[in-house]
Amino acid sequence: LEEDLEWTSRNTELLYVLDTAQAACSHVQSNHHPLVSARAALKDLINCHQNSSKMLEFKEKMVSKVKTMELAGVSIKFGKKVTDLEKKKHPNKTEDELQESAFKRFCGFNWLGNASRSNNTVTDALKLDFLNKNDNYPDYIEAAYHLASTMNSADPGT
User: Fold this and answer.
1) Cβ distance 66 to 23 under 8 Å?
2) What is the pTM (predicted TM-score) of this model?
């Protein structure tokens, strides 16, 4: 396991440790072709849904799926339309940095889209903002979680 700031601050949380260890071990078996591992990692990310778990647990689960994808060597190459949107937000980034930024935003949006129905308020607000030329889609899963937590706690109907 690679030691990073997140690992250092969270290595005593059992769920985080188990998810991180699973991500590190997944898809590195010698009997798996790298394409099998890549497909499984991408499928796990897309099919990761909140179901009955709490928002925080779901955020952790989605972050571990992204780590699994990265460990499996999977990335998504976005087209010009997506990278042009990223360039508007980050005009000084290189093409590789724009791709990475687009992937992180995709993961954040995927988290919102696969979270509970209470996040429909959040996604509807983001769509309306975008139609009004304001791209407020979150930059990553943590930002999506924060946005959903803030908006859902402000709305007593959720």
Assistant:
1) no
2) 0.70
